[in-house]
């Protein structure tokens, strides 16, 4: 591997990536169990109230998984920026992102000011 030693940011991104991957795996396993239980509940009794609870949990898991996958993409994109040497700079205005912000959000693409101007983008 012809790469420089991992920087502190890269290390925290890698840790964050591992945590997110583990979370996705456990949620996927839980989702599979919920889907199985839903199928069982449906075959046992169509009007089983448990079926509703399971449907709600299923919906929540799907949403959480979606968010975690987006997060994983953001982390991968951030790791790519580390490789290119553009990590830690705001994608919008080019200023250096506050290290404290990067500590909380290692995959942040924007500085606090630009992020505040685009409230729809959490990163
Ligand atoms: Zn900015």
Automatic annotation (TrEMBL):
Ligase in keyword set: no
Recorded GO MF terms: zinc ion binding
UniProt superkingdom: Bacteria
Keyword tags: Metal-binding, Zinc, Zinc-finger
InterPro entries (UniProt xref): Znf_DskA_TraR, Znf_DskA_TraR_CS
Zinc finger (dksA C4-type): 90-114
Residues covered by the Zinc finger DksA/TraR C4-type domain: 85-117
Pfam families, A to Z: zf-dskA_traR
TM helices/strands, residue ranges: none
Protein known as: TraR/DksA C4-type zinc finger protein
């Amino acid at each position: 591997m012809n790469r420089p030693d991992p920087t502190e940011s890269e290390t925290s991104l890698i840790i964050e990536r591992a945590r997110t991957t583990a979370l996705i795996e456990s949620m996927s396993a839980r989702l599979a169990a919920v889907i199985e239980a839903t199928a069982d509940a449906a075959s046992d009794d169509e009007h089983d109230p448990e079926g509703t609870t399971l449907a709600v949990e299923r919906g929540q898991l799907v949403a959480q998984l979606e968010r975690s996958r987006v997060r994983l993409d953001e982390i991968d994109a951030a790791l790519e920026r580390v490789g290119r040497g553009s990590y830690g700079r705001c994608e919008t205005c080019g200023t250096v992102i506050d290290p404290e912000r990067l500590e909380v959000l290692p995959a942040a693409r924007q500085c606090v000011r630009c992020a505040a101007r685009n409230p729809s983008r959490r990163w």
